[in-house]
What we know:
The chain has 9 helices and 25 strands.
Amino acid sequence: MIRKIVFGLLMAATTGAGAQTIELVEQSLDNPANTPRPCFPIPNERQMAWQETEFYAFFHYGMNTFTGKEWGYGNESESIYAPATLPDCEQWVQAAKDCGMRGGIAVVKHHDGFCLWPTATTTHNVTRGGGVAAQVNIPKQFAAASEKLGMKYGFYISPWDRNSAHYAKSTYVTEVFFKQVDEISKEAGNDQFEMWFDGANGGDGYYGGANETRSIDASVYYDRPNLYDHIHSLQPNCVVWGDEGEARWIGNERGVGWETQWSPNTHTSGYEGDAEGWKWWPNESDAKATSAGWFWHADETPISAERMYQMYLETVGRNATLILNMPPNRDGVLPEATVNSCKQMGKYIAERLTTNLAEGKGVMVSDTRTGGDYSASNMLDGDKTTYWATPDGVTAATVTIDLGAPVTCHYVMLMEYIRLGQRVKAFTVEYSADGASWQKVGAVCTTIGYKRIIPLGNDTANHGNNARQARYIRISITDSRACPLLHTVAVY
Length: 492
Ligand code: FUL
């Protein structure tokens, strides 16, 4: 008889500053399939779904689009926001989809406090704008466009509010901010995948006419534990981004991830995370697809699709997600030049990182776990739920793929089965045309995590420089926190 013990408690892992709720882990005294023990911390379900979104858009649009500022002071007259036609959210989302993205996050309130939906919490909102402003409801319109195009949606709502007279008082949190979060859920529906809480909190502002500097202690002011619980009660699939949340900043806004990148973190971890970290706090990289600012500016130009692609390799390819900002203009659309760069980027992903030359090909491994199906072919079956594993205690192992004949390859892509934790600490990648002479790739090969892409020429800036003739690819895991588990190896 299998006696099952279900944890009666929600396990909480603390960072010292806050707590993370982990899904209930079902445990059994028997282990008939010899399933590897989880190597804690592990992601919760919504973090898994969030991670799989991989690459998504940021849309900064609002009062600043019309003033040309990046940070409004909060005293801007509502009439300045005067769109002649409704913002075309479907055009935004389509551009994101064509870029190879799986979702997007729209700003619905920036630090200036102007709300892009008809809120009851403040008069500083679209209903008092000019043109067709009164019909604007970004939470609703953006969510509807995303659902129509099969894309995920989320929102950025600035905790700092330079317009509100309540800011820095307790009434702001209870009467304004919590209620705004509720209203967005009401407008957008309950399937948000991420809510973005900016780290900019307090400073000078209008504050209802006080025109002064107000500061708060963000670690206690927003009542984050209750706020986040409240969000999850409304939005069970919504990862909260930011301090004490469920996803974190990567440490720069240039789209450059760290080559060593752990999702486990401790309170004192640097941006690379920490193999021994207590909290699953995965990495998100926010970067801009245009030259000027987060908001649209008349003199902006889009970055090239090659640069976007480099960012992708250096973030998604380094165990992070990439949120790339594309600002809509005063007509409520993305400029044509931005759309074109995005389309080209989408083509690059489709052409360069989609056809797995290793799928269904031969694979040899040094070690395979017994007692269940942990065979090497699981890495090449295109199924993320099956994985290869070594026996307990075996933390070094090799995987050799035989493509059948020498072919031109550019990248090796690896994915750990992170549902049971991030494990690999060091590995090497080699390639060979004949199985006799081997070349080692010069990249820093430490962590893998959710996804790692290794360019064979170690060049993230120039795709062509990575072309290599190879029949065999050998991955040697040399160190791991516990037996390694890989669910996918791809060769492109
Ligand atoms: C920053 C903000 O202050 C910027 O204006 C922008 O919204 C960026 C994504 O985050 O912290």
